[in-house]
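FIELD: query
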Amino acid sequence: IRDDLPIKEWVYGIVIDGRALAIPRKSLPDVMPVRINLSGTELLVRWDNEAENIAVTEVASGEPFPVGIWSFWFSWQAFYPNTAIWNPNAP
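FIELD: result
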């Protein structure tokens, strides 16, 4: 079991072309969208306070990204042990 995050930390998990990414809820700003690149796919990720959910859009098409899942960290990393974790402070 990885200890990068607390075991019951909420993460939003995305998998593209076999690469997994966990986006911790607490790291998303409440207002500004963030741009994330996963496997060459540019995504715009925004926390929607009104819906209390995450909105993910594929930048190239402008369409909603169809697949993602909310999970506790312990569960996500059990299925995707090599998952990356999105860090807003990473270069």
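FIELD: remark
The chain has a mean pLDDT of 91.
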